[in-house]
Each structure stands twice: as C-alpha cells, then as structure tokens.
Amino acid sequence: MDDFPLTRVAALKRLTRFLPKAGSAYGTQRNLVDPNGQHDNVSRLSAALRRRLIGEDEVVRAVLSAHRIESCTKFIDEVFWRTYWKGWLEQRPGVWRNYLADCTAMRPGTAVTEAMAEAIAGRTGIDAFDHWAQELAETGYLHNWARMQVASIWVFTLDLPWQFGAQWFEDKLVDADPASNTLSWRWVAGLHTADKTYLADADRIAAMTGGKFRPQGLAQTAQVPYDRPLPPQELMREPKAIDPALPTLVLITPEDCSLETVLPTLDVRIVIVAADMARNPWDQTALGDAASRAAAHWQCPVGSGDVATLAKQHGCSQVVTGFAPIGHVASALEDLGTALERRGISLAEHQRNWDRLCWHHCGKSFFNLKSRIPLFLEDLALA
Ligand SMILES: Cc1cc2nc3c(=O)[nH]c(=O)nc-3n(C[C@H](O)[C@H](O)[C@H](O)COP(=O)(O)OP(=O)(O)OC[C@H]3O[C@@H](n4cnc5c(N)ncnc54)[C@H](O)[C@@H]3O)c2cc1C
Question: Which residues form the Cryptochrome/DNA photolyase FAD-binding domain (predicted)?
Fold first, then answer.
C-alpha cells in the first residue's frame, strides 16, 4: 500500500522520493497518464494529505527547499486546489447537504441503474473509461486527468447523474474527500463555474495515454445537468478554542492524523481513535498509525470505548480533535460535541494555520485564491 502512503513515515518517504519531480518536470508531465498505472509524474500524496498524515505546509516547504519558486509553481497551485475546494465547501455547506440528500432521494429507473452498474464494472465499451473504472476498483486511485475524463464521460456521454458518479468515487477512492470529490464532479459537469463544462475528447485521450486509448462515440456537446439553485454562502464555522492548561483526551479522526506535530505541548492523558468515523480500511490504517505516534509523543495510553466515559476516567475536562471540515466526520463530531457537553466536557478543535489563513479567500474563483498564494507562503513562513 506504499503506492498511496497511509502512514506518516511512508508519506514523508514518498515526499522525499518525489521531490526531484516536483519542479519543471511536474509542470510539463503531470497530465500524462501512464496506462499501466505507473503514476510517477505525480506525488500520490493525496491519501496522506487528505488525512493530514502530512500537512500541506510540510509538502510545500520541502518542495520549495528543493526548487526555485518559479519552477514549482504548478505543483504548489495544485496543492492549493485542495485548499480551494475545502474552503469553498466550508462556505457553502448546503451544496454538500444537497448532494447527500440527492443520493438518498433520487430513484433512477432500471435502465439508468443498469447503465451505472455497467459503467462501474468497466463494461461500457469505451476503452479508456473501462480501463480507468477497473483501475479504480483494483487500486483505489486514479490520476487526476483520468478522473476528469471518467467524470466527463459519465455525465455527458453516458448521461448518468453526477451525484451517483461522485458517490462511486467516494466509495472507492483511497483519498476520498467530500470537498475535492463533490466539487470536482460539479466542476466537470458545469455546475461550479457558469458556462464552463469539461468535455472529454478522444484525440486528447489518445495523446495523454501515449496512443493506448482512442475512445469511440464520446459526446460532442456538453449538456449541463439540472441543478438546484446554489445554496447561499454561510459564515464559516468557528471551532471551540483549545485550553492548553486543561487535562486533555485527544480524539483522532480521519481528518487530522498528525495532531502531535501541531500541538506538541498539550497536557494529554489519553488518546483514542474515532474508529466509528473510519469509512474504509485505509482510514483504519491511518488512524492506527496516528494513535501510536500520538501515544509515543504524549507518553500516554491509547484507549478505546465511549469518549465521555474515558475522559472522566482519566480526569480530562476537555476533548481535543482536529478541525473537521464539511463532511461525514464533521456531522459525527457535532453529535459527539452535544453528548460531551451534557457530561460537562468541552470538545475543542484544532484548526490548522493553513486553513485559517486561506479558506476565507476561497469563496470566489480559484484564481482569486491563486493570486494570493505568494502572500500565504510568506505568512506561513514558507517562502
Ligand atoms: C472527478 C474528480 C474527483 C476527485 N476526487 C478527489 C478526492 O476525492 N480526493 C482528493 O484528494 N482529490 C480528488 N480529486 C483531485 C485530484 O484528482 C487528486 O487530488 C489527485 O489526483 C491526487 O493525486 P496526487 O496526490 O498524485 O496529486 P499531485 O498531482 O501530486 O498533487 C499534489 C496534491 O495536490 C492536491 N491536488 C492536486 N490536484 C488537485 C485537484 N484537481 N483538486 C484538489 N486537490 C488537488 C492533492 O492533495 C494532491 O495530493 C478529484 C478530481 C476529480 C477531477
């Protein structure tokens, strides 16, 4: 599983190995998709970044120490695409709620249901699509450019609902992320930027796959699917602040698996992992790794069981966890926060400086955020 690192050590190793490729090579080769699944032109750090086994700041610092800023701009921009989607969804949580509601409420007919099953099994007869559907099933990963083609063919050629395509990816991707996934599907379908769709093109697919694929019968026009009116922009959720003086239970969720690197001096009495918030075995691996590192760092036991009971047993009046952006973990934490409050225990969340600084600038276009990247790098003492 080192192909898509799920421990901090593996992620740091992957970062070191990828560094020589993060400069101008990334700029020119990142969209070439190896049909044999050797994705050496890209970092494959997404599974680790998504779970914060490693931070964006750590990745960007390492890349800037290996390259002049002019030659690694493209890579840094891509890291900020993740930030952009996270910050955008944070300000429009209604888009996530609508997506979840659609997935539950929509009742596709038999023909559409069968077509989706065939697509997911990689049996559409569209060579590139079928190959990538099978690669996703086998590895849990697809190259970004392949994800764009698959999503586009799903929506415009196969005429299938984008929500179920996004749900398919969410179930299968090793880096499944509510913001990056849902909003990338919406971007491809033309629901993010007005008048901008992404239409897959057979010649481009042939060019990017070294001639291995030349799909037949792709849609020539992009019919933007129906969408509900865009939910209003909301104020971002303010996490409850951490009191560094309080005896603390650290709760590790799949949203932040390296809290000891950012909160080294907390008075931690016990660490527990939110096993019920793991959505797949990859989450479980990352949580296990995070728990052993945290326990070693804070010199405390790792417990399992009811959070409030364990907090009381260990004399903790505060539970600290990583800030959970819009998604499944955030919903689960909301319920937990209420339950803890009833027992007189506060649930405080650590929001990373990166998010605190950048998310406010994600409400408009990516290019609005991108124009500020040099300032962010300076503020975060990375450049
Ligand atoms: C339809 C679709 C669905 C997607 N779903 C997810 C998802 O669930 N989770 C996820 O992490 N990414 C998602 N992406 C974005 C992107 O495809 C992956 O982040 C990227 O392919 C991961 O591979 P990498 O780590 O080798 O990326 P690199 O090219 O090495 O990029 C470095 C890092 O930058 C970030 N990044 C790069 N490209 C993007 C992008 N377009 N959007 C957001 N972040 C980016 C990732 O954190 C990545 O690890 C999706 C893209 C599309 C088109």
Answer: 75-204
Which is nearest to 67 in space by CA: 98, 21, 15? 21
**Atom 32 in ligand 1: which residue has the minimum CA distance?**
79
The answer to the question of residue 125 being in a domain is yes
The reply to whether 224 falls in a domain is no
Number of domains forming the structure of the chain: 3
CA dist list (Å): 365 to 193, 357, 371: 8, 17, 10
Would residue 218 count as lying in a domain? no
The CATH number of residue 180's host domain is 1.10.579.10
- In a domain, residue 219? The reply is no
Does 269 have pLDDT greater than 70?
yes
| Sequence-separated (6 or more) residues with CB below 8 Å from residue 377 | 60, 64, 76, 383
Distances (CA, A) of 132 to 138, 142, 211, 345: 10, 7, 15, 47
Domain that holds residue 289: 248-350
Residue range 114-118: average pLDDT? Answer: 98
d(CA 312, ligand 1 centre) in Å: 40
157, 186, 208 - which closes a domain: 208
Strands 346-350 and 248-252: unpaired
pLDDT recorded at residue 383: 86
Q: Are residues 63 and 47 in the same domain?
A: yes
CATH number reported for the structural domain that contains residue 282 in this entry: 3.40.50.620
Clarify whether residues 360 and 343 are in a common domain. Answer: no
Single out the residue of 100, 230, 215 nearest to residue 156, CA to CA.
215
Mutation to probe ligand 1, out of 30, 184, 282, 370 (largest number of atoms < 8 A from CB): 184
- In the chain the beta strands, taken as DSSP E runs, fall at 248-252, 268-273, 302-303, 318-322, 346-350
Mutation test residue for ligand 1: of 54, 141, 175, the one with most atoms within 8 Å of CB: 175
Q: What share of the chain has pLDDT > 90, as a percent? A: 98
